[in-house]
Amino acid sequence: MHVQVMSNGIYKSPVHRVVLNGKKERIYVATFCNADEDKEIQPLNGLVSEARPRLYKAVKKSEKNFFDYYQQGRRPIEAAMI
Prior knowledge:
It is a single chain. By secondary structure, the protein is mostly helical. 18% of the residues lie in helices and 0% in strands. The chain has one domain (1-82).
């Protein structure tokens, strides 16, 4: 989500999907990268212009937004959309 907001939508945040393979054993390692709760994530100024207006508002507490929206069956990026 952070990269999508900071790039003003140039880079998309993919929906994570797990595909199981019953014939081959796999090991998955989940990693998460979150900003500090008090840090504000917003589109970079150089990526906002008249031709490409701001798509996302500034967001704080992105980890809380992630879990709140995920539990509702929604994408967390919706919390940042204008």
